[in-house]
């Protein structure tokens, strides 16, 4: 049998409970969903985090809380924090989780249209800066 690596993106940046009531917001909900994915075979948890009200955040303290909670339930899983954040966040906001020294993090390699009139901006300079960090 071929070996595969399964990455589970358990909530995304901007999907809400209005879209799907099971989208996790709280630390406890995020840890529960990560454990469910891990138990189903995921070895990497791609992580966006939210405030308890569902708004996206790149706050390093919130990421630490969520990563610690996931690692408690999924001891050998790789937690891959997003550096994408959400539309409109500054580069300084977006890169915060890298300061936690994760095993890996995301690197979006281009600007893209994102939901209607929104644009998710990744300039060449941003890509280079994030890649170095």
Key phrases:
133 residues; 7 strands; 3-stranded parallel beta sheet; two-stranded antiparallel ribbon
| Helicity range | 25-40%
Number of strands: 7
Helix run count: 4
User: Can you give the mean pLDDT?
Assistant: 94
Shape: globular
- Give the termini distance in whole angstroms: 36 Å
* Spatial extent as radius of gyration: 15 Å
Judged by helices, strands and strand pairing, the structural class is alpha/beta
In terms of DSSP E residues, the strand content is: 5-15%
Tell me the series of helices and strands, N- to C-terminal: EHEEEHEHEEH
Given as residue ranges, the uncertain stretches (5+ residues, pLDDT < 50) are none
Biggest beta-sheet profile: 3 strands, parallel
* Strands side by side in the biggest sheet: 1-2-5
Short description:
The chain has 133 residues and is of the alpha/beta class. The protein is 31% helix and 14% strand. The protein has helices at 27-39, 60-73, 91-95, 124-132, and strands spanning 7-9, 44-47, 49-50, 56-57, 78-81, 112-113, 119-120.
């Amino acid at each position: 049998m071929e070996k595969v690596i399964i990455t589970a993106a358990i909530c995304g940046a901007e999907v809400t409970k209005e879209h799907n009531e099971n989208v996790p917001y709280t630390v406890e909900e995020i840890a529960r969903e990560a454990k469910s994915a891990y138990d189903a075979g995921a070895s990497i948890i791609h992580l966006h985090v939210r405030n308890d009200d569902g708004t996206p955040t790149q706050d390093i303290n919130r990421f630490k809380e969520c990563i610690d909670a996931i690692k408690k339930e999924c001891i050998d899983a790789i937690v891959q924090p997003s550096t994408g954040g959400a539309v409109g966040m500054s580069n300084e906001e977006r890169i915060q989780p890298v300061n936690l020294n994760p095993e890996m993090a995301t690197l979006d390699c281009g600007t893209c249209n994102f939901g209607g009139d929104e644009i998710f901006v990744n300039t060449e300079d941003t890509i280079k800066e994030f890649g170095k960090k």
